[in-house]
Specification:
Blueprint: E1 2-7, H1 14-25, E2 28-31, E3 33-35, H2 40-47, E4 58-60, H3 66-72, E5 90-93, H4 108-114, E6 119-124, H5 129-142, E7 147-153, H6 157-167, E8 171-173, H7 178-187
C-alpha cells in the first residue's frame, strides 16, 4: 500500500500527518522532493524513531520552489525519473500544493497522475482555504486520483460543513484522533 500525502498548500501539516501515520500505523516514509533544511525526514525521524525512512527522491538546498532551486543549484533531473521506493506500506509526502513544480515542466499532481496511488489531502482553515481546498479536490477528481479523505485542521464547523456538502468526500478532523479515524479507511484498501 502506497499513499500520497498531498496538500492544498505549503505548511498545512503534511509532514506532521506523515509522522503520525508512520508512528501510529507502521508506515515507512519517503519525501518525493525536499527543498531546504531542516529536512522533513528529520522531523519524521524525531517523532517516530523506529520508522524506516528512505532517502528523498531529490534534495535541494534552496528553500524555494523546486523549479527555481533546480536552476540555482544547476541540478539536472526530470520529475518522472524520481523513483518511489519499494515498500509494502509507504507514505509518500509531496511538497507544497498540488500544482507546485517538481521540475521546469511537471507538477506534483502530474507525478501523481503518472504514478497512481490514493491520497490523503491535507488542508488547514484560513481565509481563502475553502476555495483552495475545493480546487484541489476538483483537480484530483479530474485526474482520477482516489481521495481517501480530506484531513482538515479547523475550529470552524462552517468551513468543514460547506466543504463536506459541496465536495462529497470523507473529512477527518486533524486532531489527536486522526490516525484512529483513518484506520477504517485503510481497511478498505
Amino acid at each position: 500500500m502506497k499513499i500520497y500525502i498531498s496538500g492544498i498548500d505549503t505548511d498545512v501539516g503534511k509532514t506532521y500527518l506523515s509522522a503520525r501515520l508512520c508512528k501510529e500505523l507502521g508506515f515507512d516514509y519517503f519525501k518525493l522532493i525536499q527543498a531546504g533544511m531542516p529536512k522533513d525526514s528529520e522531523v519524521v525521524a524525531e517523532f517516530s524513531p523506529k520508522t524506516k525512512i528512505f532517502k528523498e527522491g531529490v534534495f535541494l538546498k534552496t528553500p524555494a520552489s523546486p523549479h527555481k532551486g533546480r536552476i540555482l543549484e544547476n541540478l539536472n533531473y526530470k520529475a518522472f525519473d524520481i523513483q518511489i521506493p519499494q515498500s509494502e506500506k509507504l507514505i509518500i509526502e509531496l511538497a507544497g500544493g498540488l500544482f507546485s513544480p517538481l521540475d521546469d515542466e511537471k507538477t506534483m499532481i502530474d507525478y501523481m497522475s503518472a504514478f497512481k496511488h490514493p491520497t490523503f489531502l491535507v488542508a488547514k482553515d484560513y481565509l481563502g482555504s475553502i476555495n483552495h481546498t475545493l480546487l484541489s479536490i476538483e483537480a484530483l477528481k479530474q485526474r482520477d486520483i482516489k481521495i481517501l479523505a480530506l484531513i482538515l485542521k479547523t475550529q470552524d464547523t462552517f468551513s468543514k460543513d460547506f466543504i463536506s456538502n459541496y465536495a462529497k468526500i470523507p473529512i477527518i478532523e486533524f486532531d489527536d484522533k486522526v490516525c484512529e479515524n483513518i484506520k477504517p479507511i485503510l481497511k478498505n484498501l
